């Protein structure tokens, strides 16, 4: 049995949800290799029903269930265990980022963007890809946005900013010197800064009018180069753009 719930919870489930629980318990040896669609088809239900049932049973979701199973079977060194751990990594980054974002902070960032006469989007390294997409979508929505990655341009622009202009900074670790210096310059000029990072301890947090923190999983796949996934920053970017698009 892979889903153990007490009698009270079980009785609170609908007939279809009970079928889902029974199906997964009867097919415990297959669940690790199945998708949520496979389970839905096997129970003549829907992926939404399967997901809802799993959460009612105290598990975060189907991906988490597969990860729990792979750990219980000591499959960590097998292909099956490894792929479930990879899936769990992406799930945690996205879920934890969403959970730790305060709605008030998101709305405050939206307000700053909407009121800004000009928006400068700064990033360095691989994070520039996140900034480029964010800036491009702002432009499509009619905002006066510019993406900057050159350190010299950052220094000049940030030291000449006006109070009705803002900086939006994307940084994974929040340690890049030119980004910190640009934020300091902007604050001195009376401009607002929105910092999107995955670090708790960073000068960008103290300099920001709004600080949006993402969650970065500790495991790094490619260790020889700094190419850590920017998924948490992409999640933050998408939230801001989607709301602005409304």
Description:
By secondary structure, this protein is of the alpha/beta class. The protein folds into two domains: 7-99, Arc Repressor Mutant, subunit A (Orthogonal Bundle), CATH 1.10.10.10; 101-245, Rossmann fold (3-Layer(aba) Sandwich), CATH 3.40.50.10490. It contains twelve helices and five strands. It has helices spanning 7-12, 15-26, 36-42, 47-56, 62-72, 79-100, 103-115, 128-140, 151-158, 177-188, 203-207, 231-245, and strands spanning 118-122, 145-148, 165-171, 192-197, 210-213. It has a five-stranded parallel β-sheet, with helices on both faces. Helix 8 links the parallel strand 1 and strand 2 (145-148). Helix 6 (79-100) packs across helix 12 (231-245). The longest helix has 22 residues, at 79-100. The chain is elongated and about 65 Å long. The mean pLDDT is 90.
Short account of what is shown:
With 246 residues, the chain is α/β, with parallel strands linked by helices. It contains 12 helices and 5 strands. It folds into 2 domains: 7-99, Winged helix-like DNA-binding domain superfamily/Winged helix DNA-binding domain (Arc Repressor Mutant, subunit A); 101-245, Rossmann fold, CATH 3.40.50.10490.
Rg of Cα set? 22 Å
| Count of separate structural domains | 2
Q: Which architecture of the largest domain would the CATH scheme give at its second level?
A: 3-Layer(aba) Sandwich
Biggest beta sheet summary = 5 strands, parallel
In CATH terms, the superfamily of the largest domain is Glucose-6-phosphate isomerase like protein, domain 1
Strand content: 5-15%
Shape: elongated
Structural class estimated from helices and strands? alpha/beta
Q: Please give the CATH class of the largest domain.
A: Alpha Beta
Unreliable segments of 5+ consecutive residues:
none
Work out the helicity level.
40-55%
Query: Taking strands numbered 1, 2, ... along the chain, how are they ordered across the largest sheet?
Result: 2-1-3-4-5
Counting DSSP H or I runs of 4 or more residues, the number of helices is 12
Q: Write the element-wise H/E pattern from the N-terminal end onward.
A: HHHHHHHEHEHEHEHEH
Q: What oligomerization state is this entry in?
A: single chain
For the secondary structure, the number of strands is 5
Distance between the termini: 45 Å
What does the average pLDDT come to? 90
The name of the CATH topology of the largest domain is Rossmann fold
């Amino acid at each position: 049995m892979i889903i153990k719930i007490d009698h009270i919870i079980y009785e609170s489930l609908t007939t279809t949800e009970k079928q889902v629980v029974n199906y997964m318990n009867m097919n415990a040896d297959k669940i690790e290799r199945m998708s949520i669609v496979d389970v839905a088809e096997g129970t003549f239900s829907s992926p939404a029903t399967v997901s809802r049932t799993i959460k009612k049973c105290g598990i975060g979701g189907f991906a988490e269930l597969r990860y729990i199973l792979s750990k219980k079977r000591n499959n960590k060194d097998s292909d099956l265990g490894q792929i479930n751990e990879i899936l769990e990594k992406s799930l945690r980054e996205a879920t934890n980022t969403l959970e730790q974002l305060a709605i008030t902070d998101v709305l405050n960032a939206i307000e700053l963007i909407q009121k800004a006469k000009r928006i400068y989007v700064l990033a360095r390294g691989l994070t520039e890809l996140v900034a480029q997409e964010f800036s491009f979508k702002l432009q499509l929505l009619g905002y006066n946005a510019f993406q900057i990655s050159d350190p010299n341009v950052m220094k000049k622009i940030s030291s000449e900013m006006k109070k009705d202009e803002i900086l939006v900074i994307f940084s994974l670790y929040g340690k890049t010197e030119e980004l910190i210096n640009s934020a300091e310059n902007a604050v001195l000029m009376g401009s607002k800064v929105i910092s999107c990072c995955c670090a708790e301890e960073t000068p960008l947090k103290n300099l920001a009018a709004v600080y949006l923190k993402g969650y970065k999983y500790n495991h790094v796949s490619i260790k020889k180069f700094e190419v850590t996934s920017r998924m948490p920053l992409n999640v933050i970017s998408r939230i801001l753009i989607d709301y602005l698009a409304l």
